Amino acid sequence: VRRINKCLAEEFLNKNHLQQSIGAKLKYGLYLPKAYYRLLPKGFEPESEELLLAVMTFSGAKKYYLEDSIVLSFELIRFSNLNGFNIVGGFTKMLRHFIQEKTPGNIMTYIDADWSDGKNFSKLGFELKEKTSPMYFQLDENHNRVKVIDANEAEVMNSGSYKYILSEF
Prior knowledge:
8-stranded mixed sheet; 3-stranded antiparallel sheet; alpha+beta
């Protein structure tokens, strides 16, 4: 696991994440060294010395007021494996690397309720804090969603999100 640049993170997420890339301050990649290519499916032969298997992105630190103290909070913005691959333990390995590097007070993330209930995050120690209201959108000329405030202007809406927080490491 190591930090990667913005261009690489965006390219990977645009190809492999359902909601594509979005701005993030901190970007990490999980790599498979060439010595382990023998584990890859037949016919899958990368040309480089290592293969980028997963990307995880975070916001920068924000002050979070927790009861009578202030902690540094980070948002886990995106995580994606390479399409067609299930990297057992990859998410946890990347998350642990981030925690060791940044020592956050907590990590929060939002799970789109249209795609998941977020229960896998509970298994990793994240605690469900709330379910947010649906968001309303119009579609631009490329059929990308553009958020609108007034529900009457909306062409589409989502089911809201689940907010999870990890505070015990």
